[in-house]
Amino acid sequence: MSSAESKPSETAASGNTVRDIYWTPWTGPGVEHLHMTDHGDRIAAFGLILRPLRDEHVRIRFGFHTDALWNTRRVMVALANAEEERPRRVVLEGDGEGHWQFMERPAPQFDGCRDVDIEASPFSNTVPIRRLNLATGQSAEIKAIYLPLPGLEPTLVRQRYTCLEPLGPLGGAFRYENLDSGFAADLQVDGDGLVKDYPETFRRSWPTW
């Protein structure tokens, strides 16, 4: 690995750290482009997903905003299929301490949730991996707000993350478990906590390091 490849982050003229990542589904057509900027005091990530999903060809745009410690403060998702003139849109806003608003109304049913999980985007795993900052062998159980696609009806899910290899400049490895469904996967991530390999689910198509 060259010295350039060992540092996947790029620094913009503003001094902010910027990443562009592309993923494809493990099987079948589709692509996701993620543009993430670390502003130092906050992180902003914007994504575009194009793929067939449950017999619909959909276009999904999303935005994640966190504070410097990766506490989620705002998530927006807009989804449209070929038949819709206007996209369906949902917005979640958090205070960073487990209290939420959904579409500008209090959502006490999600009290205690710290993260938002958008189906079909591996960036959803990056936020808790960075926020938890686990050491080797450590595990943490969390509650997350899950946004299924294409319905976008939020539900509460219980999840667990276990550190298999701590996050370092060249990456790390973490086990993700959905405690409600029983699904589990071992995730390889790069030095910024962005998924490189999500077995049977996603492949990173660029950059490959």
TL;DR of this structure?
The chain has one helix at 123-132, and strands at residues 10-11, 17-25, 31-38, 42-53, 56-67, 72-81, 88-94, 100-102, 105-106, 115-118, 139-147, 155-168, 171-178, 184-189, 195-198, 202-206. With 209 residues, the chain is mostly beta strands. The N and C termini lie close together (9 Å).
Q: What does it look like?
A:
The protein is mainly beta and about 210 residues long. The protein has one domain. The protein is about 5% helix and about 55% strand. It has one helix at about 125-130, and strands at about 10, 15-25, 30-40, 40-55, 55-65, 70-80, 90-95, 100, 105, 115-120, 140-145, 155-170, 170-180, 185-190, 195-200, 200-205. It has a 16-stranded mixed beta sheet that branches. The termini are close together. Residues about 1-5 have low confidence and may be disordered. InterPro entries: Glycolipid-bd_prot_put. This is Glycolipid-binding domain-containing protein.
